[in-house]
Amino acid sequence: MNYRPIFIFGLARSGTNLLARLLDRHPAVAVALDPFMPLFRSLRNAMVAAQAPVALRQRFDPASPFQDYYFDPDGRPLLDAMLGASPNIPLDGQELETLRMKATERAALELPVFGARMGELNGSDYGQLLQCAFDIIASLKPCARWVGCKEVWIVDFLPLLVKIFPTAHFYIIERDPRAIVASLIAMAAKDPTQAAHVPSYLRHWRKNVVLARRFASDPQLQDRLTLISYEKLVAESKSEMVKICEELDIEYTPSMLELSADGWKGNSSYDHGEQNIYANTVERWRKVLTDPIIQTVDYLCGPEMMLTNYRTVTAPQPE
Predict the structure, then answer these.
(1) What is the number of other CB atoms lying within 10 angstroms of the CB of residue 267?
(2) How far apart are CA 222 and CA 163, in angstroms?
(3) CA proximity to 81, closest of 89, 71, 90
(4) Residue 293 has pLDDT above 80, yes or no
(5) pLDDT of 39-86, one tens digit each?
(6) Average pLDDT over the chain, rounded to an integer
(7) Phi then psi for 68, rounded to 5 degrees?
(8) pLDDT digit string, tens, across residues 230-284
(9) Which of 15, 21, 177, 262 has the smallest set of CB atoms within 10 Å of its CB?
């Protein structure tokens, strides 16, 4: 393996696509967008089946979405199982065939040529499977020194990925939860089929904040984990990308910021024309959200917001 792996984590609607595309614009970096959700879901289920307590295994639903672990008696045992999992979990041939089909469909959503290569996935365990997946990404950009993927919802896999990829670098991007809610509401207004469950998003936001700080305190990850502020990334794009390039020991190139050169029009819930990066909307939530919604987000996320640079602006009212 003549490259080092890179992972981008964060909540959906928090700027993960933006960061991934900025990095992928560099000639020495290749980042695939959300290609491996079926693999990580299968890995989670295999971890529970092989390593979780008996009571949890009996109650666990393999079809369930990725968990935030709040308000569920199985939440903490499941999180413990995720954080302490071993990568050497066997992968049987039937599951591998299923994953090839699901990964083909998933990866093709962003890059058809990548999806067409998912039939090459192989491995006798999940560690080998993920290494094979990264080798496929690398083969699409042979000059890349850093090869990785961006996935949402899976920050709790980070300790396991450290074991599989001991030289990997991890980025976790965070955004004001009220801005995320504003984006969710706007997205649902444009396309009702994409309406999301806001309280679940907020619980995942809380989980991401807490786990990110737990991981950041690990001495083994001191030089391999970077927390990124979405607001700072869009306000100071050049300086932030220069820092990231220094971390990765690659030379910054101005073309990294020219996202529309590839025809990308952004992933915002709002129409911003052909702008590459825009910072004038980071406080839009103050104008578009009603007071009860802001109060609700402040109430639910307030304790974790104190671990970040975000602060509550309201006091909960008895409504």
Answers:
(1) 16
(2) 15
(3) 89
(4) yes
(5) 999 999 999 999 999 999 999 999 999 999 999 999 999 999 999 998
(6) 92
(7) -100, -10
(8) 999 999 999 999 999 999 999 999 999 998 777 665 555 555 455 567 777 889 9
(9) 262
Residue found by looking up tokens 């306000």 in the block: 235
Spatial contact of 47 and 81, defined as CB atoms under 8 Å apart: yes
Residue with tokens 């039937």: 94
What does the block give as tokens for 111?
């890059």
Contact 149, 36 (CB under 8 A): yes
The predicted structure's pLDDT at residue 169 = 98
Please state the separation of Cα 13 from the chain's center in Å.
Answer: 10
Residue in the block written with tokens 């936001």: 205
In this predicted model, what pLDDT tens digit does every residue of 112-164 receive, in sequence order?
A: 989 999 999 999 999 999 999 999 999 999 999 999 999 999 999 999 999 99
Give the separation between CA 233 and CA 20, rounded to whole angstroms: 12
Length of the chain: 319
- Res 263: pLDDT: 65
Whose tokens are 């609700």? That residue is 296
Per-residue 3-state assignment (H helix, E strand, C coil) for the chain: CCCEEEEEEECCCCCHHHHHHHHHCCCCEEEEECCCHHHHHHHHHHHHHHHCCHHHHHHCCCCCCCCCCCCCCCHHHHHHHHHCCCCCCECCHHHHHHHHHHHHHHHHCCCHHHHCCHHHCCCCEHHHHHHHHHHHHHHCCCCCCEEEEECCCCHHHHHHHHHHCCCCEEEEEECCHHHHHHHHHHHHHHCHHHCCCHHHHHHHHHHHHHHHHHHHCCHHHCCCEEEEEHHHHHHCHHHHHHHHHHHHCCCCCHHHHCHHHHCCCCCCCCCCCCCCCCCCCCCCHHHHCCHHHHHHHHHHHHHHHCCCCCCCCCCCCCC
Report the pLDDT value the prediction gives residue 316, as an integer from 0 to 100: 66
